[in-house]
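PROTEIN DATA CARD
Card holder: Bifunctional protein FolD
Chain length: 284
Origin: Brevibacillus fortis
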Amino acid sequence: MAATILQGKEVAQSIRAELANEVAELNKQGIVPGLTVVIVGDDPASHSYVRGKAKGCEEVGISSEIIMKDADITEEELLIIIQQLNENPNVNGILVQLPLPAHISEHAVIEAIAPEKDVDGFHPISIGNMVLGNETMLPCTPHGIIELIKRTGTSMAGKHAVVIGRSNIVGKPVSLLLQQENATVTMCHSRTQNLEDYTQKADILVVATGRAHMIGKEHVKPGAVVIDVGVNRIETGKLVGDVKFDEVKEVASFLTPVPGGVGPMTITMLLKNTVVAAKKQAKQ
Ligand code: GUN
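Structure generated from the sequence above:
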C-alpha cells in the first residue's frame, strides 16, 4: 500500500496560523516578538534558508532583522555583535546561521548567545536541559520531526526508532527526543556496518545523512514511518532527500517529501521558540 505523504508544509501552515493569533494577542499587551538572524559570508544555500526564516516571521507578525557580515569578519567582532543583541530588549531571539567560516569558533559564538534568547536550542545550557528533560528551547529540526510524527497519530511509545546520522543539529537531539517519547532508539551513522540489519527493524526511521538517495525500499520495514531530513541538490539542479522517495513510498506507511516535509516544520519551530522567548522575557 502506498504511503500517506506527510505534508510538513500543511502542518507548518496550521501551526503558523495559531502562532499568528498568539502574536496578535501579545501585540494587544504591547509585546512584539523580535528575532535577529546573523549570517556571515555569501553561501547561497544559507542565504536562502535565512530568507525563509524572515518570510516566516513576517507571516506570523514577528519583527525580524537580518545582520549580514562579510566572511572576513573576525570572531571578536562577531562576539561584540552578539553581546549587543543580548543587551537589546527588542531582540527576543538570536540565531547565528551555521556553518560559520573556519576561522570563527562556532562553539564560542553559540556560547556567547544569552540562553534565554537561544531560539535555535544550540547553547550548551539548552542542550543540557534537553538531555535532562527540563523545560527548555528545543532545537528546531528535531522538534519539528517529533511534531510531524505525532500528527501521523502513531504512538512512539515502545516503538523501535532508528536514526541515521549523529550530527549535533539533528541526529543526536532527535534520538533524545524520541527516547523521551518512550521509543526504543538505535543510532546509526557513516561507520555503521550492515545498515539494513538495523533499518529493516525500524518502526520509525529518521534519515539525516546528507547523502542523496542513500535509503531505498530494501532498507525499510513495510508500514514504517519514514522521515527524510536530507536536502541535497543533485546535478540536474533538483532538490532531493536522503531517501528514494518513489520506491520508499510503496512500502512506508508515512513518508515526508523533499522539499515540503521537514524543512517548513524547522522554520515553524523557530517561530514558536521566538514567541515563547518573547513571552518569558516580558515576564522578567
Ligand atoms: N544551518 C543549517 N541548519 C541550521 C539551523 O537549524 N540553525 C542554524 N543556526 N544554522 C543552521
